[in-house]
């Protein structure tokens, strides 16, 4: 009997030790990202059956498990990838929002100065200095177009390098997840199927990292492997093998990097709608929904100004009674693309400004200059519905609206993410108060079990003294 | 609900960061005095501001144009004033020359004086503006409008009036053409004076009384014409003045609208800032309180 008491006491000591270890492990990992708190699960050992009844044989630890809820985790993954997508789109579009900023920066002042100079020529058609000022202001206007286009191109470059970075990161995460799939299977089978909690946490943390970059779906296999799908169902990790993604130049535009998957005998470009969610999804959405359309609007505007101004300029005559030539150049008459980048002033000689409406040699003939100045307020763009300024204002409000929308939705999504994370943390996160209480509890258990052993020992002694 | 220790810290940090972000934005608005920092602050207002800025800029340009128009018109007006004075002097001399008591040599002296007036008139007809363009040659600003030829004085300009955009809807003529001033209905003022001088220089002065009455008749026509032109120029000057007044009023309206759109309501912003500051302080205090509580402090 004394032996039995000793054994029960020892089982209690061992259980308390494991529980204390688990508690300390929780405490030391309280701030580890992706850590799920662990619990030592105790159960009463199989009792000894005899004629007295079933006599208890102490306690055993059946397993150390992590407190984990698959459903909450996948909810949080969804929330994370949506939040990252909106965040990255917002951060990118904010740059354009800043670029357009207020009325004292951007295109507006350059446009006004140019047309004020045209008005000056109309009022003083024979004045070479007025004409020179008009040319200088035209140069400033085209330079402003080029600067804006340059900034947008830099953003495009930025998108490219971020795509490359994202792809590298996805590949590295995929490799690590595939590696862990193998590793977990191996260590768990060598531990009689006990769960490798910390490795499982590591793998979940990698999946979580992946969900920041792109939408992730995880399908758990019977053997414990994670099969990982990204975007809209593109498989990335299957068991122990990981696919490799690549950032490659688009076939239609070499300046535009797209995501492709390495396949035997070549690479397959993944369509953008398959790459949704996460910061990568946000980048792609920014490029196709915002950047392209803003750059296109600038091109349309530059092209429209060049086209309408040239048309009016060509019907006029310059100071030498020569018919007006193109005032702006560099834009393709039939294709607005890249007009903002290429627009230049074609004229360098102020006398070449065609202010007159006939070739009678009238130096104070300003009829064509008046018409050129009138173009500023005429609705010549967007099918005759917008002036230069209002076309630009439309662009400003379009970008402003989209930025605001993203600001609001990304904030909403962020608080959604916080809520799911809180729910997750509420279940799986470490609470130090709780662990402190557990420390005390298992300390007591340890001390009590020691007492049991001591009593068992004294029982044994009293038997020996007989 | 069970709250994890990380949540406690994360939540505390997050709320402090949020308050700080709001505070930072308010500070930016306050330091720039702007309500709209970027279009996303007010997309519709931002677009409207760009269009208002154009209206304001155009309005300023029209004001410049009006000064230019007024300069031109004033120069035309004062030149026409001199021309009408000159015609009146010539007319007075013509009346005096009709006196049959004058001898040939006295008439010759009058002819010399009249010749002076004639040259003066030609000078006025060929007046240039401050940029060196002839006032009365129409679009041919660098062509001398009146040239003395073997056939008398000839007009070399054209029949075009220079226009200046003085408001969004008004292009105002700011010049008069030489032929309209000095050759009304084909009757050349120069020819009238020249013919009369010829008559004065003719010895005996037999046809003088007829010449005087023709000259007076033609001078009256010329004078009426110049006075009519001057009245037209004067009314255009008045129009410029009126437009200037309207333009100034409009500018104030535009500026007020733009200010309403763009400028910060300081009272509101400062009160927001104070509230935000209190919120941040509250977040900081509660965070230190809550995070300071721990069972570990007691064991």
UniProtKB/TrEMBL annotation, chain A:
One GO cellular component assignment for this chain's record is: bacterial-type flagellum hook
Cross-referenced InterPro entries: Flag_bb_rod_N (IPR001444), Flg_bb/hook_C_dom (IPR010930), FlgK (IPR002371), FlgK_helical (IPR053927)
User: MF terms per GO, please?
Assistant: structural molecule activity
Q: Which residues cross the membrane?
A: none
Subcellular localization(s) per the UniProt record: Bacterial flagellum; Secreted
- Keywords, in A-Z order: Bacterial flagellum, Cell projection, Cilium, Flagellum, Secreted
Q: Which GO terms describe its biological process?
A: bacterial-type flagellum assembly
Identify the residues that the record assigns to the Flagellar basal body rod protein N-terminal domain, covering every copy.
6-35
The residue ranges of the Flagellar basal-body/hook protein C-terminal domain are: 427-466
| Name of this chain's protein | Flagellar hook-associated protein 1
